[in-house]
Design a protein that fits this description.
Largest sheet: 8 strands, mixed
CATH topology of the largest domain: Aminopeptidase
Distance between the termini: 30 Å
Number of domains: 2
Structural class: alpha+beta
Strand order of the largest sheet: 9-10-11-12-13-8-14-15
Number of strands: 15
CATH class of the largest domain: Alpha Beta
CATH architecture of the largest domain: 3-Layer(aba) Sandwich
Shape: globular
Order of helices and strands: EEEEEHEEEHEHHEEEHEEE
Helix content: 10-25%
Number of helices: 5
Length: 253
């Protein structure tokens, strides 16, 4: 199939995958719509795609396309209206001493080891806990847009890594993983707050957080960052789900 969104987007071709087990709702099957352009998707084109619900994983750009299920809801933070709650302010104070360093996407064995430890401890049996080096690289270190790898160190000890895409209207939080063995840490919460602050510094209006899934505890933390917008019926609208606010889960995008 092909669609045309507006004058900025070329005519795109799409492929719909076969059904596969959903990573977030174990009782359901999922499938995705993958963009198959005639050329590589660059930052301006991806900026348009993310506005209509697409997401990047490596060089693949996709969005959920599941029959009879609309659980995956694209969400983004309105940066200039964001106000942190008490728990978030505590997380900011707790970890603001971390030293953040921006890098181009690159492989480092210490990064891969941290990723493996994180997956095994925080997402055991989630499908990525035994990712090979090639799987890790394909997932996080392949990109056709303006992507950065940010390391966070504490006294020269690597604590966290975040992959972030820069778009004309905001940052897109691709993935974050951190040291799972530090007790009483709030690395995931701190990282989103740090990305919000980067948006403010760069004068970017939005921080894209990917998909929110109400039934998934892995994704419910995103509702803590208000005000939030969600993509509903093709329009970005105010998101309000008070039952999930102040959720203590500290989990990255």
């Amino acid at each position: 199939m092909s669609i045309q969104n507006d004058a900025i987007l070329p005519v795109m071709k799409f492929h719909t995958t076969e059904f596969y087990p959903c990573s977030y709702l174990p009782s359901k099957l999922a499938r995705s719509q993958i963009v198959l352009p005639d050329h590589l998707i660059d930052a301006p084109i991806y900026a348009q795609l993310i506005k209509i619900g697409f997401r990047r994983s490596g060089n693949f750009v996709y969005r959920p396309n599941c029959e009879q299920c609309e659980a995956c809801v694209p969400v983004r933070i309105i940066v200039d209206r964001f106000s942190s709650n008490r728990a978030q302010r505590r997380a900011w104070r707790q970890h603001q001493h971390l030293v953040a360093t921006h890098h181009k996407l690159h492989y480092h064995p210490d990064h891969y080891r941290l990723y493996r430890r994180y997956q095994v401890k925080r997402h055991a049996n989630g499908g990525m806990d035994y990712d090979s080096r090639d799987q890790y690289c394909n997932f996080l270190l392949q990109s056709n847009v303006d992507s950065r790898l940010i390391t966070f160190h504490e006294n020269d000890q690597l604590r966290m890594i975040s992959i972030v895409d820069q778009l004309p209207d905001g940052l897109s939080s691709v993935y974050t993983f951190y040291d799972p063995d530090v007790s009483n840490a709030s690395f995931g919460t701190f990282n989103i707050l740090w990305q919000i602050e980067q948006c403010r510094i760069k004068k970017l209006p939005f921080l894209y957080l990917g998909y929110w899934i109400g039934e998934s505890r892995k994704m419910s933390y995103k509702a803590n960052f208000q005000p939030l917008q969600s993509l509903q019926d093709g329009q970005w609208q105010t998101f309000n789900n008070p039952s999930l606010q102040n959720n203590p889960i500290d989990c990255p995008t």
